[in-house]
Design brief:
With 139 residues, the protein is of the alpha+beta class. It contains five helices and five strands. The longest helix is centred in the middle third of the chain and has 13 residues. It is globular, with a radius of gyration of 17 Å.
Length: 139
Amino acid sequence: MSEGAALLRQHGIPVTAQRLAVLKAVGESPHGTVDLIAEHVRASIGAISQQAVYDALGILVKRGLIRRIQPAGSPALFESRVGDNHHHLICRMCGKTVDVDCATGHAPCLNPAGNSGFRIDEAEVIYWGVCPDCLKTNP
């Protein structure tokens, strides 16, 4: 049994070739869009509908195997790094997205001035700027 199949079963997700291919594609293309993930899946297993990719991503996010982030003004991005409350750096010019570890301490690693009675377990931070490659071409 493959590691992906075991992971799906462990989380109560029926194993299909499409779900395995989507899980693998997310792992191989961190911060990929649905379109990019669908491209990878099609290259791996052949034809798959866009809706099947959305459905697979949805169940994988719901069961906590992957994470969905949606930066302002950008399409949703998917990654397999979950459970560690990390943050992201995003280039304003090319959209390159990279992980950055928590700002301080443990999750949620940032505390608001007031919590309005909420029990906070996660903080999502996105740092915006210009990546080194774009800085070279656009000083």
